[in-house]
Amino acid sequence: MGNSVFRFKQFAVEQSDVPMKVGTDGVLLGAWVHFDGSERRILDIGTGTGVIALIAAQRSAAEYIAGIDIMPVAVDRAKANFAISPWAERLHAEQASAQEFAATELFDVIISNPPYFVDALLSPDDGRTTARHAVSLSLGELDEALDRLLSADGRAALILPPDEMRRFAALSRLRMVRRCDVRFVPNGAIKRVMAEFGRSAVSDCRCEELTIETEQRGEFGEEYRRLMQDFYLKF
Q: pTM for the full model?
């Protein structure tokens, strides 16, 4: 592996040949999603390099963790990254769309950092277009997949910009049970929303906030450091 490797504390991700590299959104979601030790099966929709599935393997005791992606190059790369990880026997990658993916058993946790640029101009790079524009997986199709693949007591965790999260919550068959608003800087606009959804209604959604940097630009906040300390080498 060369300079294209993103190294974490317990695993490494080769990403030279995939359109979308390791980014804050996926790592943040993987670190934030709640695991209580009862999860047997976890699904990562749009796995890309496999980073979210790898974080799930590090954080949970799930015996089966699957990553699916529609891009063959991403699936091949995820398989290779899984194979060199400490959890190779628990990790599996498959080329499939969320709309068509069929599972023999339902999943206890489904995680996705989905495409969300609904109205933006398409990228000239087909791979980046597929990964970041909702041309291959709309929010409605994602919701249908979650409803079909999630177990009765399961949870689905997503990260989206605020407007897209509002759209998803409004159309979803699932109910939001936990939410975290993410700001890049103190008092800045909310740039991302992480949310967990389940089938059961709750009286109050548990709401949290996270700011990535301190008022001193370039310095990371203590809460963000705590969330990421098991993964990033710099913490």
A: 0.90
Cα–Cα distance, 111 to 185 (Å, whole number): 25
Exposure on the CB side of residue 4, measured as CA atoms within 13 A: 12
* Distant-in-sequence, close-in-space partners of 21: CB < 8 Å, separation ≥ 6: 6, 15, 49
58 pLDDT higher than 70: yes
Q: What is the pLDDT of residues 15-42, one digit of tens each?
A: 988 888 899 999 999 999 999 999 999 9
d(CA 213, CA 199): 34
Which residue blocks in the chain are alpha helix, DSSP H? 24-32, 51-59, 72-83, 126-132, 139-149, 162-171, 222-228
Q: What residue ranges define each of the domains in the chain, with the CATH number in brackets?
A: 5-228 (3.40.50.150)
Angle at 123 between CA 120 and CA 124, to 5 degrees: 145
The answer to whether residues 115 and 132 touch, using CB atoms and an 8 Å cutoff, is yes
Extract the tokens encoding 207: 């709401």
Q: Diameter of the chain by CA atoms? A: 50
Q: List all residues 6 or more positions away from 204 whose beta carbon is below 8 Å from its beta carbon.
A: none
Q: What are phi and psi of 171, to 5 degrees?
A: -100, -15
Q: How far is CA 205 from the centre of its chain?
A: 20
CA angle 228, 109, 63 (to 5 degrees): 90
